[in-house]
Each structure stands twice: as structure tokens, then as C-alpha cells.
Design goal:
Layout: H1 2-10, H2 13-45, E1 56-59, E2 62-63, E3 69-70, E4 73-75, H3 77-101, E5 113-115, E6 122-124
Antiparallel strand pairs: 1-4, 2-3, 5-6
């Protein structure tokens, strides 16, 4: 068990698990944002359109010879539109979070260098031998 604990702490598996859980929760929040807050006003602006009910029926629902209901066959492009809007909002939220939380580390100043008098290759200032031509500097 101690090896497994060491693996989790050493390989960032715990951080990945936390990120997945937070991602799922964020996905649910964004789905609610899209379906319950953003899409109703868009539907009203477009004349009362409910995107989730937009379909192209290929075959109506029927009852077969045995009396079992056969569901309709339809292309539900309205649900697809909702999912595209949800994806765009999730991408924007992830982008905003990453811009705030993942700031680049400050760059360290470049170490001093000098040029080899023989081959003109740039080498560290404290070098005594050129790494390109092996000449003593």
C-alpha cells in the first residue's frame, strides 16, 4: 500500500484525479448555464425557438405488427447546437481560468557568454575550451 501511495504522490496522479472531479463539476455548471440561462433568451430573441426540440423527422413513430411502439427516427440538430454552444462556453471558461492560474514563470537572466576567437561559436563566459572546435580559449 505504501508503494501505491508513493506512486500517487510522485506522479501527479492525485492532481489529475482532482482535476477530473473539478472538470466534471464545472461541466455540470456550464451545462446549466447554457440550458437554463443562455438558451432561453436566445430562443426568445429568435421568435420562441427551443433549440432542444429542433429536429428533422426521417420517420414518424409507429406501432409494429406485434403492438410494440417504434420510436421516431429524427436528426436532432437542435441538441447539437446546444452542445456546440456548451463546448464554446467551456472552452472560454477553461481559457480564462488557465490565463489567471497558469502564469508563466519569470525567465532567468541569460548567463554571460563570449565568442570563441577561432570558430566564432558562442560559449559560456567561464569556459576554457570551445565546445564546437575544442580550441583552448
Amino acid at each position: 500500500m505504501s508503494d501505491f501511495k508513493a506512486f500517487l504522490l510522485k506522479t501527479n496522479a492525485l492532481a489529475l484525479a482532482v482535476a477530473v472531479i473539478i472538470g466534471i463539476a464545472l461541466g455540470n455548471v456550464v451545462n446549466s448555464l447554457v440550458n437554463d440561462i443562455i438558451m432561453p433568451p436566445i430562443g426568445v430573441l429568435l421568435g420562441g425557438v427551443d433549440f432542444s426540440s429542433m429536429v428533422v423527422k426521417l420517420k414518424d413513430a409507429t406501432v409494429d405488427a406485434a403492438g410494440k411502439p417504434v420510436p421516431e427516427v429524427a436528426i436532432r440538430y437542435g441538441i447539437f447546437i446546444n452542445l456546440i454552444i456548451t463546448f464554446v462556453i467551456v472552452a472560454l471558461v477553461v481559457y480564462a481560468i488557465s490565463k489567471v492560474l497558469l502564469r508563466p514563470a519569470p525567465e532567468a537572466p541569460a548567463p554571460p557568454t563570449k565568442d570563441c576567437p577561432f570558430c566564432k561559436e558562442t560559449v559560456p563566459a567561464d569556459a576554457t575550451k570551445c565546445r564546437a572546435c575544442a580550441s583552448a580559449i
